[in-house]
Amino acid sequence: MSRALIIFGFILVAIGLLWPYVGKLGLGRLPGDIVVERPGFAFYLPLMTSLILSVLVSVVLWLFNR
Prior knowledge:
Elements: H1 2-24, E1 34-38, E2 41-45, H2 47-65
Antiparallel strand pairs: 1-2
């Protein structure tokens, strides 16, 4: 369990360091992401971004478990 927590911590640090570069890839602004902006209100639902990240994480975990 401790090994998994350490790996999870390293992954979070890596994501935090790479976050400025991830924004340049267009994640969060894909077709299928729902954005509603009104005066005094903004709603954002990243459906397509969540789907793509879920598939990528699933593939990576599948490769590690092979």
